[in-house]
Design brief:
About 85% of the residues lie in helices and about 0% in strands. It is mainly alpha-helical. It has one domain.
Amino acid sequence: MSKIIGIILILVGGFLIYKGAMRKDSLAGGLAETSSEVANKIDGGSRVPNHYYYLIGGGILVAVGIGATAGGKR
């Protein structure tokens, strides 16, 4: 059962990484990065574009999925 859950987590994580990478390479992603950099320089805040959350979340899900798949009961 844990191997099935691990595989599902890997697939969902891979999808999130794909979506984040596509968003980062798009025009909207470029504008989001530029506007975040400008806004951070103006007020010193720490804004992060949304596609970074997709990339980080996808990486975490893939890592947990690999752990669940490799470390499951045998």
